[in-house]
Structures are given as structure tokens and as C-alpha cells.
Amino acid sequence: MTIHSLCASRETCLKNRTDKRHEQTTTRTLATITLVVPDYDEALAWYVNVMGFSLIEDTPLSDNKRRVIVSPGKGSNLLLAKAATSEQSAAIGNQTGGRVFLFLKPMTLSAITRSTVAMASFLKRTRAKNHTAQ
Q1: Nearest by Cα to 55 from 44, 66, 39, 67
Q2: Buried b (16+ CB within 10 A) or exposed e, 63-80
């Protein structure tokens, strides 16, 4: 469906571009974006504790599946979906075929500093955990 299919014709659509009612019917936002992750709890630790996102929902759906949604505060939420197949696992970190996936607007300088310290600590713990598991 194109934006112009909502109008009687392309000319009518262009003529009504400044009409508030018309704008309300054609303006869209992305509410939630799915992000495939290797593990729910590790992803939550990263997005909530390191990146400063808020946990919106964490609902068990089955023994292996949860509905986990986090929010940066403004804009789209992220649905953290645990990879369930080898194909999904292979897409982790490459969900857009090597292109940049998401752009996060900068925070305040003090928030960036706290986030950087938390990120370094998280990565250190993750590396230590991975090293001892080998």
C-alpha cells in the first residue's frame, strides 16, 4: 500500500499535505522493533544495566520463550527475542546484512560516562565468564 492509495488521487494527496486530518491518517511511527539475542537475561543486563533502557515487559510465554520489551525512553521499543534456531543464532549481530541497524541519540555527558563505565564492567564480567566456561 502506498501513501497515495489513502487519497482519491496523487494530486488530492499532494494538495492536502498541510491538512491536519490528512497528516494524522498518514503519519506512522515504529512502536516496537524485534532484536534477536542469544540470551534473554544477558540482553536485559546489557540494555537495562549498561545502556540505561527501562524494562517495559518481561512475560513468560512458555518454558523457552518470553516477551521481553525494553525502551530507551523515547522512540521505538525493542522486543528482545531469543534465537530459537541455528539460522536465527547466525543472524545475531548481523541482522541487517552488515549495515548499521539502529541509531541511538546521544545522552547527557554524565549519562554517557556512567554508561561507559557500566559497559566496561559488563564486558569484563562477560569475558571472564566466557573464559572460565572454556
Answers
A1: 44
A2: eeebebbbbbeeeebbbb
Q: From first to last of its 134 residues, what are the pLDDT tens digits of the chain?
A: 444 455 666 666 566 555 555 555 667 888 999 999 999 999 999 999 888 899 999 999 999 999 999 999 888 899 999 999 999 999 998 888 888 888 877 767 777 777 777 777 777 776 776 666 65
* The model scores a pTM over 0.90: no
Rounded to a whole number, what is the largest CA-CA distance in the chain? 66
Of 106, 118, 129, which is closest to residue 38 (Cα–Cα)? 129
Cβ(78)–Cβ(56) below 8 Å? no
CA distance 105 to 116: 15
CA atoms within 13 A on the CB side of 105: 6
DSSP annotation of 105 reads P
**Cβ–Cβ under 8 Å, residues 43 and 119:** no
